[in-house]
Amino acid sequence: MVMRYLHCDFVEEWPDPWDLIAENTYCSLAKCLGMCYTICMLERQDITSVSIAEIDNNDYIVQVNNGLYTLNWNVNNTVNMTLKDNQKLTRNIDSAMFAYKIR
User: Fold this and answer.
1) pLDDT digits 0-9 by tens, 25-59
2) Helix-strand-coil percent breakdown of the chain, rounded to 5?
3) Backbone angles phi, psi at 90, to 5 degrees
4) Which of 19, 32, 70, 91 is the most exposed place for a label (fewest CB within 10 A)?
5) Phi-psi domain of 27 (left: phi exceeds 0; alpha: psi -120 through 50; beta: other)
């Protein structure tokens, strides 16, 4: 784990899933990107949306089905909850912006 590997303003420069694994360097955003790639590869009909959300403390979470499931909120659990008022989303990156990199 490193402090900064990827930047949310340069989505087009993000690695594809295989390069992400090969480079083996992970920040909070890269970890979420790996989760999103994995979920998108499942091609499940019950998953309607996947996105990476930045929360106001400069951390990232993965939201599935418009926030019905939140991953990376608590490292040990997958939770089904809403964000608290003091932890508002500051940015949302829909998987459509990077899912094309899955080969």
Assistant:
1) 999 999 999 999 999 999 899 999 999 999 877 78
2) 30, 25, 45
3) -105, -15
4) 19
5) beta
